[in-house]
Amino acid sequence: MTAVELPQGRPPQRLPVRRIRQILCLVPLLLVTVVAVQHRSVLVEGFGHLRHAEWPWLLAAVGATCLTWVAASFTRQGAVMQRLPRRRLLATQFAAGAANHLLPTGLGAGAVNLRFMTVCGVPLARSSAALALYLLAESIGRLALLAALFVAFPNALRIGTLLPDESAGPLLLGGLGAVLVVAVAVLVCVRRVRTAVGSFLRTALGEARSVHTRPSRALALWGGSLAFPALQAAGLTAVGQALGLPVPPVHMALAYLAATCAVALVPTPGGVGSVEAALVVALVAAGGPVAVATAVVLAYRIITVWVPLVPGALTLGALVRLKVI
Fold it and tell me: Which of 122, 127, 126, 133 is nearest to 111 (CA)?
């Protein structure tokens, strides 16, 4: 008998890695275009307010915004024992800011930084622990500044206007309680989840102890965690001064911290929409007129979100192309 070779079909062709990276480089710009089109009215109104502002104060706001990326770099380095390349770390924070405005709050920056640390040779378990430590330190720093300003200036805000009404309050508490009950039930009933969470907590606590044995790392972690929200608040204060908002600068900073803490759990991309609304309410609670407060918030978000978005997306694409992330 003679063996007959049957014709074989062509093996499925795969996209080369280089082509995939080229496509990924274009994704951030595509997302920026979509978000900008969706919020074009906000952009037009915000740029309109900037034309009538005092430019020295706007430059101060731009400077404070740029320094936030430096503060974030210090905090990221302080959260991990391994030394990270400084220039790439700073570029990654700039790109992570753009990613954070394109994905639900915290996910974009977290994914970018997690990938960056992995490329730098940090094991996934330790890089995840470092990410959690960063988020915890940044939250503690923001709440500490808010508490300190509240104690120093107890009458800066009309608290009643910031609290949810009688119908929304119980609904909010009920939702948080339901989420907590479900989380506890999953931990108790699902062994794999319980084991994974326990392992992660052990790694995170070990990493936190190691970081705090190095004074330079601890100083970078907590110094950056305090500087980051302080610089953000300083940026809003500078814009308020530029547009003549009749609210004391410290009260504006307090309003910013209160508003950002209030919307921290709202899963919108970069807080777009929720942050603007909360900031306007907080500035009005601090004594500002509604029209001027709205103008200040729109101008501030133009400077801190929309202007850096395109260069941030380009940087993100370049970092993907250069295999930094």
Answer: 127
